[in-house]
Amino acid sequence: MMSEKSKQHVESCRFCWMCHHICPIGNATGLERNTARARALGLSLVNRNAIELSEVIDNVYECACCGACVHDCTTGWDPVMFTKEARLDAAMEGVLPEYINALVDNCLETGNAYGVTELDGALVSEIEKHADKKDVLLFLGVDARCKVPVAAVNAIKALEKANVEFSVLADEPASGWQLEYLISAANETKEQMEACAKVLNDYAKVVVFDPQDAKVLKREYKEWGVEVNAEVVTYTSYAAELLANGKLTAVNCGKEMTYQDPFQLARDLGETEEPRKVIAAYADLKEMLCNSGDTMWAGNLLMKEWMADVIVRVAQARIRNAKGVGADTIVTASVSEYASLKAVDQDEVKIVSIEELILGA
Amino acid sequence: MNEFLHAMILTELEDAVGKENCSVKQIDKVTHSVDYYWLSRMWADRGRRMPEADFVVAPKDAQETSKVLKIANYYKIPVTTWGAGGGTQGGAIPVCGGIILDTKRMNQIYEVNTDSMYIECGTGAIYKHIEWAANEVGKATMHYPSSLTCSTVGGFLAHRGIGVVSTKYGKIDDMVLQMEVVLPNGDIIYTSPAPKHAAGPDLNQIFIGSEGTLGVITKAQIRIYDQPEERRFRGFLFQDMSGAFKASRELLQKFKPSVMRLYDPAETASLIKKIVGVEKPGAFMNIAYEGCKEMVEVEEKILLETFAKYGAEDLGSEYGEKWWNEKITFFYPGHMMDIPQMFGTMDTIAPYDKIEKIYWAMKEAIETNFPQAKFIAHFSHWYEWGSMIYDRFIVDGKDVPEDPVEALRLHQEIWTCGVRAALANGGVVNDHHGVGIKLGRLMKEQYGPAMQVFEGIKKSLDPNGIMNPFKLGL
Fold first, then answer.
1. How much is the pTM?
2. Is this complex scored with an ipTM above 0.90?
């Protein structure tokens, strides 16, 4: 049953087209249903018993919840809010699509939506080097650990370069971002978050590699009363700090690079400058269309599980934006976007992660 | 349509555009059944389902569009072209079912040509995206309607759209070089390579404004312009509308501002007060002038001298700039009229010797016959010879029948009354929102025997009458 607040937003968005241009998925697919207004119209008809939730639920899962529409809305309507609430309703009513149910089950059974139970060998070796308990914990996140281990290894090595002492957990708990994305504020999500918080609270500082984790740790945990006593910092802001205090040294290579702001950092957490400071230390930063708070999402690994072809098109669009300003490299700060952009079959624009930049790639 | 035939046609359409670009899902049908037309919104608001298409297809180019139209012609099933659904006249609603042909896969930007100053693009491109493409090379499209972010190039062409800087740069029909069009029989044609010529009537202008009744425009070359060195604003307050008309007509004999918008006292006291902050009573007018800095200096001098002659109070640049920054805010939910209110924009256009009379006639017709309706207006697009009225009626939610059929009846009656008042006094059925299904019945009243020209073209190009039936009065 949708809340009155969400209903109000649905009623406002159902006949409003103004954010049509800004949806990365709508832009990639060209599908009318991939718009905030279409989603709202469908849900408004559900609220009026003119259509079943099960008939529109696939469309509810075609949203990245990137918040571009929310950010663009002059009057503050929030399609992400009602989209997430519809997901929670679908979970409660037992009308989740099968492909979502399977991912939720994986999250509950293995801690990650992909159902991965064994980590990459090279990553395991790197993690073992940091098994001792230190004040600082590097939190890698499920995408890096399960899907892009090379990114996880590089994240560790980049911090080693700064001679930072830190721990990495062999059995890192899930932050809950995947469940939060899939079924929103369900009890299972909160339970996963509480379990994670308990582990993090053994450390003074947690450096969060994946912006998807950082977003929930710094936002949803607070909103839902899940207490984290440790200081939570993003990997990018930590890297900027290491550069500022001289623990990392950089040489500008003189190349023109553009930056793909992850929406979780730029919009949800308001972090836009720290990654730019890091990039500016190593290269000449050239901004592309839709940057900072206006960023356009470049894809992720979780949605790739059920709409792989769309994720490729989303990433292709971002590569076109980079080419449009003549940048030959896109620097990413999100492992998920890194993997999505890398998966595009092209060789005109290089995709480099922040940690690769630090390591001199 | 029986289940067997439906399945047969579906396989043919899938073959034409690819399975993934052909849908019979409920969500796609619902999404393409409600556009910005008040009646479709009201219908959905009352929990009713609008007429839906049987198939939603998205061709990627003219060739695939051609295949779809050939299939539709063979089976004699209707085809309604859908851009982004931002139209106000119900032009994109598949009232007879059949095929929705969504153009947004045709969103390619093929060329940004800074020698001849145009962008060649698929007509499914969202206009804001071609503005971005122009901006990337330091240019601009200068087509800035409130629906810039939510309408396609083809949508604007289909109903002869217009933007806020039209007085200087023109309407969409002034902004096109060549077009690619797929005729109802599937033939792909090209209009002349240059828009000004003596090679017979202008093919562009036959298809621009045809609202998908004569074919599908699949590609267009859209003009781009240099960004102005300077754009300045000036707000004025007139004590009466007549003075504003005389001042504006005189100004336009001297130079063309980019923005000219005159708000009647009722709209000044409501929307302009709320969004721009003008508190004083009167008729607010915003003027923008732009281009080379030296020219702008001269134009400002002419503007101030001309408007002073007619007693306009100079409000400085602040309100004008605020208006420019907020020009789209007017249309967001919370600022714009919305259900449960009933509302409509009965825009019309006429020469200066008629326009003011039309304004008063429409105001009187609406307010006398429908005392529950409020009438507000502004005049937003100006020419050397005349102007248009963007006049709106608004009925409070408490006065709108809950029964959807009764609400439809009241809506139709108000529209008919208002537009007939415009026609009777020398106005046109619509200025820039198009006709759609909303005003189709009034086209014959507008054109009389001249309507046979449109009907003849329609019959010749679309003998089976499959293209967007019951729109444009055809």
1. 0.95
2. yes
